[in-house]
Amino acid sequence: MIDAATKTALSEAFPSIAWSEFRGDTRAVVPREVLFEVFKRLRDEHGFDFVVDITCVDYLNFRGAEDRFGLVYLLASTHTNERITLRVFVNEPDLTVPSAVPLWEGANWLEREVWDMFGIPFEGHPDLRRILMPEEFTAFPLRKDYPLQGRGERHNFPVLHREDA
Amino acid sequence: MPPAAAKTLEDLAQAKSRDYVWTLNFGPQHPATHTTLRLLLMLEGERVVDAIPDIGYLHSGFEKIGEHLNYNQYVTVTDRMNYISPLANNVAWHGAVEKLLGLEITPRCKYLRTILVELARISDHLLCNGAVGLDTGAFTYFLYAFYQREVLYDIFETLCGARFTNSYTRVGGVMYDATPLVIEKIRAFVRNFPKTLEDMDRLLNRNRIFIDRTKGVGVLTKNEAINRSATGPIARASGVTRDLRKDDPYLAYADLDFQICCATAGDCFARYLVRMAEMRESLKIVEQAIENLPSGPVNVGIDERTTLPDKKQVYTTIEGTISHFELVMTNRGFEVPNDEAYGAIEAPNGELGFYLVGDGTDVAYRARCRPPSYIHFALFPHLIRGHTLSDVVAVLGSLNIIAAELDR
Amino acid sequence: MAIDVPENVVVSKLDELASWCRKNSLWPMPFATACCGIELMATGASRHDLARFGAEVMRFSPRQCDLMIVAGRVVMKMLPVLQRIWSQMHEPKWCISMGACASTGGVFDTYSVVQGIDRFLPVDMYVPGCPPRPEQLIQAIIDLQDKIQREGTISGREFATRSRQERKRALVELPVITLPRGVSHLPQGVRVD
């Protein structure tokens, strides 16, 4: 839920944002081009100094979805107790999104996980490597076209027998 | 395809190494790393110059499983995240699901879930502080804490049959209502626990060795805590006075009288004291809630069509029968809006939230867990720079990193 | 040091003595990864005390223990570490796979969890449960002690010849239940043996 003043200020500055509300959460769909400016304005002028979560949803099998990936940024303000959900939709082939790390250090590992699980590169991230999967892993597991049981990577290891010690 | 600036772990270690700095591999199998985490420590003698964390040694694909199990089955998997306080995870998951559905649970259920979250909080803080004590050499403290946790396990077992990994909540209610025996046991715990807390205080609060090992070690300033998204006791020990139970009251917290525990120093000792104080506050909450436990049904009514009705209703009323079949038959189940919601609680470790995307069926389209341990482990390199090798253990213990929540 | 004469009374007594010594001082190496690790710690704590059975110290160094208890799910990133620790242990060594996740993958049939460590390591005892109660783990250690007493040799011959595909026998033989014709509570083709 955000204050009405914040919402009007943001809608005036960025008319391309689409607002909605659901169960008490305020959501804003932001186009990728103005994303970094929206971040900067939220942090500097409206006091949103806390990143709650950064995640992604793969809408491949979702009925009625137009874009494939939806990045979700949950931000909060520790002074006024406001929370906002920003959503950015990206499509292949160009999945690059500006990184939020220059503004909030807490976004560092959250963006690394989105890269690892979905394959969305963040431009301006200081250290974009795989974090949860092994570094040699090639696929992006949380995408909808990757099966739950994997493609056989989990059993591709040497076997130690009792005689081998 | 990774972007051009990406390096492997070896490249990073190479880049940070200098002539007089040596690398120590800490983990993933090590008694002091609470289960599987790995740290590459760059040391200059005994002093830590840098620490590179390497995680993923327990990544089990929880979020992918969330896309294949329905809302009542997934609660068994949420248990296995922060397995020190599984009831808190269950309540967080079903709180988020009920927020997505727009379902209002009964007052008795709210109070019961509050009591259980607070007991889980006591259990978590006992283990965290016990582990800090164990790692800094205080074995008796650890055994006291573990004995009290066994008493709590006894309560949980009487309630739902499992010592931990309870999977107790369901959509719209809980698995079984609390019997009078459980309530009696909780009352007995509330009576007997303060004495143990005092014993534990006497062991460590003014202990010269413990204070020397934890005071001034791993200092997190208030601005850093906010910038790096720390929540829970770690943030509160740095002076951030945020607690979801007071800022955005959920369950029964609005009716209960308790205080948030904060400190300003931000070091390991402050985090230890904040956790001890939070245990006392949780006990107060449990005491008030158990005396004021409302009577009435614990699950929502059958009109909502989300919880299984009790057997008497199923066998005697037509609505009960229909409701039971609607929920149990395949390809039926309850209706979920085609939308997204985020629901969080103040778990013992910090803000534990679930971001849910519903697609009309009773299997979530996306179940994202916002794990406090993951975000806190990113703080570790920042906290440890300049300290010695023995402080690594104290800081790691005070951050309460649970590997299953870290890696999911 | 293979001794060829099978009926030698002195050697079999030595075998029994060595097995008795080894079984009563099994020092576990807790390879605790997840929730079963907490039950392992609870088994070592004061209420269910594992030290009564000889597991006096939980040594975390593989060079100093003889029993590896794998408690918790093993992920493919962790498996090489597990194998390395197993190979660092000296013989005689045994392995207990504690919990459903270590035995078969458990709840987690996903892309990253190994579906049972016995695919990659020789396991001597399986403990079912999610997580198993401390009493179950203690029962497994007692059963392992019986196994060591039954099959142990002083020279360690049993480690050179046992192979992973050996059919595991249940320690308690259950009777086959016969029901009147037409009544069956077991699905077709299930044998109880």
Explain what the structure shows:
The complex is a heterotrimer of chains A (165), B (408) and C (193). Chain A has 165 residues and is an alpha/beta fold. Chain A has one domain (4-123): Beta Polymerase, domain 2 (2-Layer Sandwich). Helices cover 19% and strands 24% of the residues of chain A. Chain A has helices spanning 4-13, 35-44, 107-118; strands at 18-22, 25-29, 50-58, 69-76, 83-90, 97-98, 122-123. A five-stranded mixed β-sheet of chain A has the order 1-2-5-4-3, with helices on one face. A two-stranded parallel sheet of chain A has the order 6-7. The radius of gyration of chain A is 19 Å and the shape is elongated. The model of chain A has no long low-confidence stretch (mean pLDDT 88). Chain B has 408 residues and is mainly alpha-helical. Chain B has a single domain (62-304, 334-407), classed as Cytochrome-c3 Hydrogenase, chain B, CATH 1.10.645. In chain B, 49% of the residues lie in helices and 11% in strands. Chain B contains 18 helices and eight strands. Chain B has helices at 9-16, 62-65, 74-79, 86-101, 107-135, 139-160, 180-204, 208-214, 222-227, 232-236, 244-247, 268-291, 311-316, 318-328, 372-377, 380-384, 389-398, 403-407; strands at 22-26, 38-44, 47-54, 169-170, 173-174, 340-347, 350-357, 366-370. In chain B, strands 1-2-3 form a three-stranded antiparallel β-sheet. In chain B, strands 6-7-8 form a three-stranded antiparallel β-sheet. Mean pLDDT of chain B is 87; it is low at 1-6. Chain C is α/β, with parallel strands linked by helices and 193 residues long. In chain C, strands 1-2-3-4 form a four-stranded parallel β-sheet. In chain C, α1 packs antiparallel against α5 and α2 packs across α5. The radius of gyration of chain C is 19 Å and the shape is globular.
**Biggest sheet strand line-up of chain B:** 1-2-3
CATH architectural label of chain A = 2-Layer Sandwich
Q: How many alpha or pi helices of chain B? A: 18
The name of the CATH topology of chain B is Cytochrome-c3 Hydrogenase, chain B
CATH topology of chain A: Beta Polymerase, domain 2
Strand count of chain B: 8
Reported for the largest beta sheet of chain A, the result is:
5 strands, mixed
Biggest sheet record of chain B? 3 strands, antiparallel
Amino- and carboxy-terminal Cα gap of chain B: 24 Å
> Could you estimate the helical fraction of the residues of chain A in percent?
10-25%
The percent range for strand residues of chain A is 15-25%
Largest Cβ-defined interface: A-B, 46 and 52 residues
Question: What is the CATH top level name of chain B?
Answer: Mainly Alpha
